[in-house]
Structure formats: C-alpha cells, structure tokens
Design brief:
The chain is elongated, with a radius of gyration of 23 Å. The chain has a six-stranded mixed sheet, with helices on both faces. Strands 1, 2, 3, 5 and 6 form a five-stranded antiparallel sheet that branches. A four-stranded antiparallel sheet has the order 13-14-12-15, with helices on both faces. It has 330 residues and is α/β, with parallel strands linked by helices. The protein folds into two domains: 239 residues, P-loop containing nucleotide triphosphate hydrolases (Rossmann fold, 3-Layer(aba) Sandwich); 68 residues, Alpha-Beta Plaits, CATH 3.30.70. 38% of the residues lie in helices and 26% in strands. The protein is built from twelve helices and 15 strands.
Length: 330
C-alpha cells in the first residue's frame, strides 16, 4: 500500500518556485527521509502534505486522500511534529498532552491511559507533572513527538526533528523514532539536513535541491552507486587540467571538481591512485594531499547537487520563510 504519493507537485510564491515538479512515492510502514539544505523545499513540501499549504499545481495523496479535496480526512490520519517546539511552557507535560488529546478528539474514556502510554514511551513519566519551562530542549522535543502520536496516526511527519540539539540528545531522539516505527509499524516522513540522521534512520532517502528531486533510493544503494571508493586530492594551481586527465583513466566512475579539491569515484581506489600520480607528473602538477575512503552520503549529495550540504546556507531564515508561507496560504 502507498502511504504518500505526489505527482508533479509545484508550489510558487510569485516568481519564486519553492517546490518544482516533485513526484515521490512512500510505501506503507517506510521511514522516508527528505534530505536537503535549508531552503531546498523540504518544509514547503511537508506543509502541502499536511494540508497547511495548497499546491500551485500537481497533486498529493496521503493514505489515499487528496490533500486539497479531502484535507479533513488527511488530518485525521496524520501526526505532524514541526521543527519549532510547540509545547506550552506554562503547562505541565501531562497537561500539554491532555490539551492535544482534546484537540485530536480522543474519547475522554481513553485519554488518560493514552497519555500515560505516550509519556512512558518517551521517558517523561517521572517529569509528567512538571511545567515544561523546566524541560530541556530534548525533553520538549520528546513531548512534541508524544503529542504527534496521541491519536495513533497512520503517517507521522517529522520536520527537522533534531535541529539545534546536541549529538547525545539527537541520538536519543533517534531511539524514540525507531521505537515508534517498530511498535506501531508507522509510516514516517522525516525531513532533515543531517547526513548521519538520514543514513541511520531511513529506509529510503529523497535528495531535494532548489525545489527539485535529484534522486531517491536507499542510503546503501545511493552510496554504492558512486563506486566502491572515493579519492579526494588537492593539487597546486588549477585543478581543471588534472581533473580532465584523471577523468579518462580506466576504473574512474565519476569525477567532481571545485576550487579546493578533486573528488574521484573509483571502483578500486588503490589501483587508481598510482595512475593519478603518473598523470600529475606528466602534467607537471604537484599533488599536495590525497586520501582514500568509502563513499558517504556527503559524497552522494555533492554528486547529485554539485555542492555541500551546509546548515543555513546563504543566510536562509527558516522562521521568516515559514511566516511567509503561512501568509500566502491559499
């Protein structure tokens, strides 16, 4: 069964295209990662899928319902945890969930037990009656996730669930996401710009850049597609001539060049490196450094987008963009 499907999805704000012809399919029970820089179109796509925005063109279905024609049915079947923490600091953890339970129309007779279950799942039962102003950032995010799970949705949307958290807290949140997925066999759609998060959590990953889907596959398949090994080197002077020469060598699958380095994707890096030195000697180019490693998602991202995955690239202001999106809801 297909949990999420989009077909040629487009969202424009005036002359700016935030989502550009996005077509993806997410299977039931899958953890699907949406990987891209800030401003790439991740959150806009998610806002369309959660009925907070209407697309300019194209279509999107969640658990079989059209997000434009049947938004109420979509909302009944999804949970949504946005990047910015949505808890009320003046309420206790339990009271926050009680409010969420009422908003989600959970019957009064099962509310208390459901809240206790969720508090236990995210390890907040002992702090349930404390005001959330006393909670750490990680605890608030766990409470947010519990709120998104209260009505047992078929699909859980997580928008940058660990942004701004330290690595230990981030790993703890990953544990809860895995637990939720295993216990409820829930479809999870997760947007992130953390490579490790996408690699460790997701069954498949869609890389989005400038509003367009560049590739979709499992993390292992994406890394394997680059070749077995990655050679990175820095040379004195211009890289262009050396890169063109190295790109013709047998065993070189692909090559990427920027102002700082040459990245070579090779089937057998150890066999290619001596030939790289031969080419540099022939051209009179000095290699200043060279390394060999297995491909990572960073390498995949660079290959498909032509640039690194950097946080807050080009001064992107997510809160400003979110406010703009809300103002332009149509």
């Amino acid at each position: 069964m297909v949990a999420i499907q989009t077909d040629s999805l487009v969202k424009r704000y005036g002359t700016q295209t935030a989502v550009d012809n996005v077509s993806i399919t997410v299977e039931d029970g899958e953890i699907f990662g949406f990987l891209g820089t800030n401003g790439a179109g991740k959150s806009t796509t998610m806002m369309i899928l959660t009925t907070l925005l209407k697309p300019t063109s194209g279509s999107a279905h969640v658990v079989g319902y059209d997000v434009v024609a049947n938004p109420k049915q979509v909302r009944k079947n999804i949970g949504y945890v946005q990047q910015d923490t949505a808890v009320d600091e003046f309420l206790s953890g339990r009271d926050n969930l009680a409010l969420q339970a009422r908003l989600s129309h959970i019957p009064a007779g099962i509310r208390s037990a459901r809240i206790d279950d969720m508090l236990a799942m995210v390890d907040l039962k002992e702090r349930a009656d404390d005001a959330t102003v006393k909670y750490s950032g990680g605890m608030r995010k766990r409470l947010d996730i519990a709120g998104g799970l209260l009505h047992r949705p078929k699909v859980l949307f997580l928008d940058e669930p660990t942004v701004g958290l330290d690595i230990q807290t981030r790993q703890k949140i990953w544990e809860y996401i895995r637990r939720v997925h295993k216990e409820y066999n829930m479809t999870i759609f997760l947007s992130t710009h953390y490579m490790e998060e996408a690699d460790k959590l997701c069954d498949r990953i869609g890389i989005i850049d400038s509003g367009r889907i560049r590739t979709v596959d499992s993390p292992s398949a994406l890394k394997s597609s680059l070749g077995s090994e990655v050679i990175t080197l820095q040379a004195a002077g211009s890289h262009k001539e050396l890169a063109e020469s190295v790109g013709t060598l047998s065993g070189v699958r692909e090559i990427s060049v920027d102002a700082e380095k040459i990245t070579i994707y090779a089937y057998d890096g150890r066999a290619v490196i001596p030939r790289v030195f031969e080419e540099s000697a022939r051209l009179g180019t000095t290699i200043e450094s060279i390394s060999l490693k297995q491909p990572t998602l960073d390498d995949v991202f660079i290959t498909y987008t032509g640039h690194d995955l950097r946080d807050d690239e080009q001064g992107y202001d997510r809160k400003k963009a979110y406010r703009k999106a809300r103002e332009l809801r149509a």
